[in-house]
Amino acid sequence: MTKIIIGDHIVKSFGEGDEQRNVLDEVSVEINEGEFVSVMGPSGSGKSTLLFALSGMDKVDSGKVVFDSRELSAASENELSDIRRTKMGFVFQQPTMLKNLNILDNIILPSMRDNRKNAEKISEKARVLMKRVGIAELEKRDVTQVSGGQLQRAGICRSLMNSPKIIFGDEPTGALNSNSAEQIMDIFSEINADGTAVMLVTHDAKVAARTERIMFMRDGKIVSELNFPKFDGTDMDGRVDKVLVKMWEIGI
Question: Would you call 70 exposed, middle or buried from its count of C-beta atoms within 10 A (0-12, 13-18, 19+)?
């Protein structure tokens, strides 16, 4: 398989002097094109920091991160911004939306930066994505007039506007009820089935069990992995049980 991300002995520390600690401690990881990956671990284990490092949102202190054959540590801030905007998509626990724009305008805003002349084409793509995730009727709604699950679907649409090679999700279901979380995971599974790699950080065993590879972190290191076949809608309880057993075995 072609590797889309290579993290090689990456170190990221916070604090100074005696209080300095490595949140990422010599972590090496590879993500393949089209892979569906999740990261689990207790708070402070380095999960989100790993996501930020692999996406170039955080500079690493040592080691290197290579994305799509490009070493991110050698890229300028403008180059990193372009890479994230054109080749990566991001979905966070709380989607950052502008309250003075409606749902459709929030979705298309990042894509309009370099393509103002193609506004109609961009809007049409957004509408196609909104229909795909079940929020087509909400395009004129304000962000305060939709539910958390609907807002998260809009965030997913926004992340897909530039046809990224990978979607990064940091606790994307963390603020949702179980039914909405399952629906969001259905969307991520569809995105992945279309060939887009997905990497999720989560505390939820049910979310992780939907992915094909789970990396477990503790104290800034990847301490174990668990692999599953692509989820086909069956044996969810069995997959969740295996995740919970692994978490118990490694003490997270």
Answer: middle
Tokens representing residue 36 in the block: 């569906």
Instruction: Decide: 24 and 11 in contact? Cβ < 8 Å.
Output: yes
* Amino acid in the structure at residue 219: D
Contact 215/47 with Cβ under 8 angstroms? no
The amino acid present at 51, given as its one-letter code, is L
Single out the residue of 90, 55, 92, 91 nearest to residue 75, CA to CA. 55
pTM passes above 0.90:
yes
How many CB atoms sit inside 10 A of residue 137's CB? Answer: 11
Q: What is the pLDDT along the chain (252 residues), one digit of tens a residue?
A: 799 999 999 999 987 776 778 899 999 999 999 999 999 999 889 999 999 999 999 999 999 999 999 999 889 999 998 899 889 999 988 778 898 999 999 999 888 776 666 788 899 999 999 999 999 999 999 999 999 899 999 999 999 998 999 999 999 998 888 888 899 999 999 999 999 999 999 999 999 999 999 999 999 999 999 999 999 989 999 999 999 999 999 888
